[in-house]
Amino acid sequence: MSQSPGGASLPPPDIQARADRKAERLREILTSGIPRVFISRAQWLEARLSGIGGSEAAAVVGASRFKAPFTLWAEKSRLVEPEDLGENEVVEWGNRAEPTVAQKFQEVAECQFFLLEPHEILMVGSEWVPYRFASPDRMILEPTPVITEWAMARAQGEGSSQLAPFNMADLQGPGVLEIKTAFRGREGTWEEEPPLDPMIQLQNNMEITGATWGVFAVLFGGSHFQTFGPFSLDIMFRDWLRKHVEAFWGRVEDHNPPEVQAEDERILARLYPDEEPEKVVQIPEAWDLHQRLQAAQREIEGRVSEIKALKNRLRQKIGSAEIGVISPEVSYTLKTTKKGGFYTGPSQFRTLRVQERREG
Predict the structure, then answer these.
(1) What's the CA gap between 56 and 263, in Å, rounded?
(2) Quick one: 54 and 177 in the same domain?
(3) Over the chain, what HEC string results?
(4) Strand-by-strand arrangement of the 138-140 sheet
(5) Which of 90, 124, 234, 280 has the fewest CB atoms within 10 Å, counting from its CB?
(6) 219 is in which domain, residue-wise?
């Protein structure tokens, strides 16, 4: 493998050339976007720093389960190295399952994908702004009779989503497939319509690639496969997302961070791992934060005191009994718990626990 002037490894020319030719062929298929095919995850991750992709667009609007806006801003501002979510077990196993779920979708939908090698990753850049891109899991070359049946059912109101109502006129040309894995029991979160974060990703990727339709393939609990869609590109949703991504990238360019949230504790620890001895900083603008913090702590302390008082009143009602029955559905136990202590010696106390009988 050759070396760049800076010493970084470069891909073999023949492998990169094949990837470039695939990108050229895809550009002939897509109605919009500037496709690039990367031959390594490291290449792709580096390119992602220059803008906002589909999965990151959810973080921009605070809808991501994995990343808050400030954390994303710090990464895009290159203040810290981005965390590779591929090391997250949930994400890792989702990535491992992706080819299998894609194959299952292909069998069910009887469709063809734009083929990439396992080591290749697609990124499609926006034709209008340099900081937006899409990395769809798969590009479906064209609708099939099976997908058309799904579309007709949705157009007639079956499983129709308020977020992206389907228009049969949109079912033409290539489409976007997004593949998801979820824990068993999360089917209910997809019942009415897909959750907001994957829908943001799908809508972003449709807009950037010029696709007018897209679909989800979801594997629940490793054993329950389900498809959702197709969905149209929603114009109102598109404009809403454009506005938020543009404002966010303006913050990156202006070095103006969004407000820190509760989820940003880890990124702050990475940004400021150590204190500078004897350094003092004046922060009079933080007076409002101080007042709000003190008020929140007093409220918590009051709630803790209230909880203790309510528990003690229940203990008083139960007295020396083991069980106190409030109704056929609700009761409390007050049983002795024994605990051995190495330094303090053994102790025992009575523990209050609620027991609720749920129907079904």
Answers:
(1) 15
(2) yes
(3) CCECCCCCECCCHHHHHHHHHHHHHHHHHCCCCEEEEECCHHHHHHHHCCCECHHHHHHHCCCCCCCCHHHHHHHHCCCCCCCCHHHCHHHHHHHHHHHHHHHHHHHHHCCCECCCCCCCEEEEECCCCCCEEECCCEEECCCCHHHHHHHHHHHCCCCCCCCCCCCHHHCCCCEEEEEEEECCCHHHHHCCCCCHHHHHHHHHHHHHHCCCEEEEEEEECCCEEEEEEEEECCHHHHHHHHHHHHHHHHHHHHCCCCCCCHHHHHHHHHHCCCCCCCCCCCCHHHHHHHHHHHHHHHHHHHHHHHHHHHHHHHHHHHCCCCEEECCCCEEEEEEEEEECCCCCCCEEEEEEEEEECCCC
(4) 138-140, 175-182, 213-220, 224-232
(5) 280
(6) 13-266
310 and 248 fall within a common domain: no
The pair of three-digit structure tokens given for residue 176, joined into one six-digit string? 């976007």
pLDDT value of residue 10: 57
pTM above threshold 0.85: no
Residues of the chain with pLDDT under 50: 1-8
Residue 159: what pLDDT?
54
Task: List phi, psi (to 5°) of 101.
Answer: -65, -40
Which pLDDT tens digit goes with each residue over 298-321? 999 989 999 999 999 988 888 888
Q: Establish if 4 belongs to a structural domain.
A: no
What total of structural domains would you count in the chain? 2
| CA within 13 Å, CB half, 159 | 15
* 211 shares its domain with 350: no
- Look-up of token digits 């989702």: 94
The string of pLDDT tens digits covering residues 106-146 is 999 998 888 787 788 888 888 888 999 999 999 998 999 99
Please tell me the predicted confidence (pLDDT) of residue 5: 46
Assess contact for 326 and 314: CB atoms under 8 A.
Answer: no
Residue 108 phi, psi dihedral angles, 5° rounding: -70, -45
How many Å apart are CA 20 and CA 331, to the nearest integer?
A: 68
Q: How far is CA 179 from CA 95, 105, 228, 294, in A?
A: 9, 9, 10, 45
